[in-house]
Amino acid sequence: MAGKSIGIGMIGCGTVGGGVMKLLRDQADLYAHRLGATLRLRRVLEHDLGKHKAKADLLPAGSITADADAFFSTDDMQIVIEVAGGCGLISEYVRRALASGRHVVTANKSLLAAEGHDLFALARQHRVAIAFEASCGGGIPIITALQFGLMANRIDALYGILNGTCNYILTEMTRSGKDYATALKEAQAAGYAEADPALDVGGQDTAQKLAVLASLAFGVRVTGDQVPVEGIDSLQVLDVRLGAELGYDIKLLAIAEHTDAGVSLCTHPCFIHTDLPLAQVHGPFNAVSIYGHATGHTMYYGRGAGEMPAAAAVVSDLLNVASGWYPQAFAQLKLWGDADQPATLVDSDDLVSRFYLRINALDVPGVMAKVTKILGDAGISLSAMLQHEAEPGRFVPVVITTHQARRGSVLAALQATQALDEIDGKPVCIRIVDMPPG
Amino acid sequence: MAGKSIGIGMIGCGTVGGGVMKLLRDQADLYAHRLGATLRLRRVLEHDLGKHKAKADLLPAGSITADADAFFSTDDMQIVIEVAGGCGLISEYVRRALASGRHVVTANKSLLAAEGHDLFALARQHRVAIAFEASCGGGIPIITALQFGLMANRIDALYGILNGTCNYILTEMTRSGKDYATALKEAQAAGYAEADPALDVGGQDTAQKLAVLASLAFGVRVTGDQVPVEGIDSLQVLDVRLGAELGYDIKLLAIAEHTDAGVSLCTHPCFIHTDLPLAQVHGPFNAVSIYGHATGHTMYYGRGAGEMPAAAAVVSDLLNVASGWYPQAFAQLKLWGDADQPATLVDSDDLVSRFYLRINALDVPGVMAKVTKILGDAGISLSAMLQHEAEPGRFVPVVITTHQARRGSVLAALQATQALDEIDGKPVCIRIVDMPPG
To answer: Which helix (H) or strand (E) holds B111?
Structure first.
């Protein structure tokens, strides 16, 4: 790859692909200086003719094609960028690129979360590399930090805010007291949420990114569908407000923890203390807190999405691959877990944590004695309680925070409280995550 | 370097060196798995016999020596770690290591800030690499992020909290209202400040780290002594308090900005808005905010010092060098600025910024008219004012914040106010840094 010119192909030319084209056009001199070689975008594969037209001014005539065979037969194409997203046909294209000896730079977290280990094995087999900085955390170089910067560490835990749509909505619910539906509508109007926000607000996008990061951090085999997921779409603004009174901010967290029983993974709305660095991450920003056994706590913050941040992550990968060092590192280092070693995952019921519980209780004497007896009998010890004054005889929200307890036991106890006449509706249970400050 | 065993030498075995030895001993299996090769610490060069004894249990007998010739004649020593610090003799050792074909991993910011460009040229000449993650930001992989993770960006600006001692003292002054001398004594008692804190509190340590980061970020040649420095040792707690009333936190910042006139570098106590991510960095923690033209704002946070965070940065470098990819990247990429291209630096008087000004003014009619006239005549426009009620006829602190103004003009105007009979003592001028939120 030390030659004068390096040929690039790109699959997909939507938002991120357009950003990649702009960077390659506008910063050609900078990249040629850093690399000692010229990057040439030779061919783009895109099935959507509308995108052909929209990007026509960024490429020489005829370089965009909808014909996969024409694309893969392009001469002098050493690196293939994949920014189309999704699995299925795109997976076939990525495999075809690898099998034909092309390095792949991809932004595709859903593909990596589902088929990462097979793809990495295929890449090694054909002596090429896969670079994937843009798959998690957008413009934040979190993959580079995990792969190389924290190399000396055994990673103990990782907590990430990985979806800008959710964080924008939760920030609005917290700051302005808006309910979920209103905050979602505003996020859509502001361009921070898709017309169909299901994958974002349902937590699946975050869970896929967590699978990628956990595979890398712990060197184990884990897929996106192994991550227990709870989204923000059923979150009530009442709980956001009551949590704030107790000193907590609500965040949709991707959590991976190394425990004696195995790797604990989950994606759900959590309360974290307002003093923690992650609690300061507002609006569409993303951040990841990583705890290394030697380095302690480090945090990485930035824009998790958007045309140019994502494109910059893709092009950084492209430069690192084109320079030849990344393929060498990919071949040499055991960074992505051994394909033969599936992760031992902790069942989410066995998760031990603190919890925020809210029940709707009739304000009559003796109710709390019954509720706390149920919790006590289940071995759950209480940390704090919050109930505002209410008219006697009416239902009123009562908040209880627990000390460390097994999640399964907490959920069972909550279900038992539902059988009480004095309790109305389904109780709410939100995990409280106590990250070590260091 | 693909062999089974890679020989390491280490210069210095103080705190960080001890941490490196512990990591190599305790994580030998992890590193062998990641690397596919075994790291062997063969010889340590240390002139302090006390440290020989203290570290005796971490090394085979006879492997610590005070004899440089014996050290450099060690067989099978492909990589030399330098954790002794300082220039002079240590510079000679580093040069000797490079000239004898050994890669160097160093934590030495003062050496790199003074002689980095010569050392990098020497390394290239002998086809070896210098890795230096531990030189700035301790355990935070900020060098890796700048070298590789943000590769596609033209870096526009960089703002760093790079000295844990100073940040600890400033946090105490802010939170508890202690004066500088008291906060320093407590930092010393808590182990966050040296018995002789001059290089930390005077800002030189921060300035050296800034020289390293700016060379890397902007690809220019700059040395530590080219950075204008102001420490925190003359900072008054009154200004910390008045700044807080206006919504600002005080931080000792390392600042590098790309401007049309050249690179603007400085290290001084600054006010930043309490809402900014950098304002949330408390106690001994460090953080660096980087603004890339495409990625926008990213921030990197963690422990800037301490045995294990620094040792982990050294050992991460060691693994990256030993795997062979880092030497290839070092040889291939134009990351550290061309030695022939010294930076065009903006004179600190030509710095354009907002400023916090405090004067001690007699509370009589007409004083503020005179002061504001002097500022207005100098073309300095006011943004806000703050004066608490005081007894008439007494001196009272008056705070003025400016809009964007040239620093030289502001200082000249302040000096002119000193000539007024109604002004007592030397006015205070502290820069207000308005970082873009994105």
So the answer is: helix B109-125
